Amino acid sequence: MGIFNSLFSLLKTGAFFVILNDYLRRTFPEKYEEILISFSLKIIYLYSQGQIYLIQIQNYINNAFETNNYLKIIKNEFKGMVNYQEKQYEICQMNELGNFYCKKFLNLSDIPSYLNFKENEKSIFVFYDNKNPNNNCVNHVVLQSQPFSLDYQVSNIKFLMIELKIGDKSYKIDLKTENYNYYIVNNILDKKFFNYYLRIHKILNSSDALYRELEQFNIKIIDHNINLKELEISNKKFIVIKKDDYIYG
């Protein structure tokens, strides 16, 4: 009913202006065009005056914020909040208990102070390059040990299938989707990585803690060369992604 009422009101308003226009044209034929032109010019004048006033008000407000230190601080903090909510670098840490700690950064220079691998040997850190997505696909860089570097290269390979088996259950692993990409040169896919992957992508949750106590996983892959392989994954046996290939050992 609301849509029909709105359409009816719009039709009534349109009909009113059509009737008014016809009445003015028939009643005042000699002054019709003069009235129409005069009315149009007044509308244009009022619109232009309104724009001028808005620009003057905007300039006054900007000047007030620039000349008043307190207002300038508020403006800068507000801009920082807006930027913070938009695109930032991010690092997520998962410790040996499967707990996550994620932190966002405006600048790369702020990140090193957050990382301390010596105190987090059993943790995994993953860097999300949210500021440089490729068609909304964010590159995820696994940071393994010092000296760490946030410079990275995207690999040219992509496995056709990855299937991870835990007990009698199998889990499909996607290292690249429309939203994220783990095919980064020198990313290490070990037991710690798959623990992280299963949790961060909500395939397993904290109630499935037993899987973290396993010494190894078994995975089945169909690689970029269409080779079917069954591999053992542990902290000592893992896959390393390279530019045009991968290494297992």
Secondary structure blueprint with pairings:
Blueprint: H1 2-27, H2 32-67, H3 69-85, E1 89-94, E2 100-105, E3 124-128, E4 138-143, E5 161-166, E6 169-172, E7 180-181, E8 188-189, H4 191-200, E9 217-222, E10 228-233, E11 239-241, E12 246-248
Parallel strand pairs: 4-7
Antiparallel strand pairs: 1-2, 1-3, 3-4, 5-6, 5-9, 8-11, 9-10, 11-12
Helix pairs in contact: 2-3
Work out the helicity level.
25-40%
Q: Mind telling me the C-alpha Rg?
A: 31 Å
Separate helix tally: 4
The neighbouring-strand order within the major sheet is 2-1-3-4-7
Judging from the principal axes of the Cα atoms, what is the shape?
A: elongated
Order of helices and strands: HHHEEEEEEEEHEEEE
Rounded mean pLDDT is: 79
Distance between the termini: 69 Å
Question: Which properties best describe this structure?
Answer:
4-stranded antiparallel beta sheet; 12 strands; 22% strand; single chain; 249 residues; 5-stranded mixed beta sheet; 4 helices; elongated; alpha+beta; 2 domains
Characterize the structure shown.
- It is a single chain.
- The chain contains four helices and twelve strands; from the N terminus they run αααββββββββαββββ.
- The chain has helices at 2-27, 32-67, 69-85, 191-200, and strands at 89-94, 100-105, 124-128, 138-143, 161-166, 169-172, 180-181, 188-189, 217-222, 228-233, 239-241, 246-248.
- The strands form three sheets. It has a five-stranded mixed β-sheet with strand order 2-1-3-4-7, covered by helices on one side. A four-stranded antiparallel β-sheet has the order 6-5-9-10, with no helix packed on it.
- It has two domains: 2-81, no CATH class; 89-248, no CATH class.
- It is elongated, with a radius of gyration of 31 Å.
- It is of the alpha+beta class and 249 residues long.
- Helix content is 36%, strand content 22%.
